[in-house]
Specification:
The protein is an alpha+beta fold and 303 residues long. It has eleven helices and nine strands.
């Protein structure tokens, strides 16, 4: 896509000069553009969802403490309409400085994750309608992880090579899954916060981006961070101890690893079928499904 992907009328709708320099930003399945120095234009995949996410972030920014341990972008409203955030399939956000890290500092990542979800929980938001309306590979896998759907109910299940790697771990994880010992209320949680933090060289708090919401207990966000550490980084007992080892912590982690594992089984394209298959062939050998299961198994005796 070229820089002309953001039309002049869209720039004007958000109060950005038509001659603002546009720079494509790397990362993600969507091409975003930085306009000038401080506005990021992001395509909207679903306008109703994009409006609701912008409203949620607006509310969060109003209650964030002055000493918040994280930053989030400010959604930019349309000129002359302070409660609308989508125009012509585009949204606009304030730019967050920083970049990702090659080496994850797990203690910091978990701390930021928990602070973000603590504040998000104080909003007392009702479950947004788009969470049930818009189903994709990840939301389908989330439903399976929580026992709300079976693989047989999924629209497509992937090829035999992938299934040969994940069938065993999925079976074990389902056997590990038990009811939570406490009634943990559901709230909005970011389902991929660990991979969506920006770290600023000037010492600003980490930025949290690319809001991917689910409706689960507050601690599930941290469990997904740890699941990624087990699956992709071969982190074991030390990371689980850092996260927490009581019965509900481990049960949230069981569901998080199940969520991440089952995602591989559901053949619903994210970008395109060819692109997804190419990515999967390259990345599948790097994922340690069995190692993640073995790491969790050591703590089940405490549950």
């Amino acid at each position: 896509m070229s820089a002309t992907a953001v039309p002049e009328n869209i720039l004007a709708a958000f109060g950005v000069a038509s001659n603002a320099a546009l720079k494509p930003l790397p990362g993600g399945s969507l091409v975003c553009y930085l306009a000038g120095d401080d506005v990021v234009f992001r395509p909207s995949e679903d306008d109703a969802e994009s409006e609701q996410i912008a409203e949620i972030l607006s509310k969060l920014r109003k209650i964030m403490p002055a000493t918040a341990e994280y930053r989030v972008s400010r959604p930019i409203a349309l000129v002359g309409c302070s409660e609308r955030f989508v125009s012509g399939g585009w949204t606009a956000w304030s730019f967050l400085s920083g970049c990702g890290r090659d080496e994850i500092i797990w203690s910091e990542t978990l701390h930021v994750c928990r602070a973000f979800h603590r504040d998000l929980g104080t909003l007392k938001i009702s479950k947004p309608e788009f969470l049930d309306r818009r189903m994709n590979r990840f939301r389908l896998a989330d439903r399976f992880a929580w026992g709300e759907a079976s693989l047989e109910e999924m629209p497509n299940v992937t090829n035999s090579t992938v299934l040969s790697r994940i069938n065993g771990p999925i079976k074990e994880l389902v056997e590990f899954r038990r009811p939570l010992s406490h009634e943990l209320p559901n709230q909005l949680i970011h389902g991929d916060i660990g991979g969506n933090m920006l770290f600023d060289s000037e010492g600003k708090p980490p930025g949290v981006i690319d809001m991917t919401f689910y409706w689960r207990p507050q601690g599930y966000g941290a469990a997904i961070v740890v699941a990624d550490g087990l699956l992709w980084n071969q982190k074991g007992g030390d990371l689980i101890k850092l996260y927490g080892t009581d019965a509900d912590d481990i049960q949230l982690l069981v569901r998080a690893v199940l969520f991440r594992t089952v995602t591989w089984a559901i053949d619903v394209p994210i970008v395109s079928r060819v692109s997804d298959e190419t990515w999967a062939k390259r990345m599948l050998p790097l994922v340690d499904f069995a190692g993640a299961v073995d790491a969790i198994k050591k703590y089940l005796v405490r549950c």
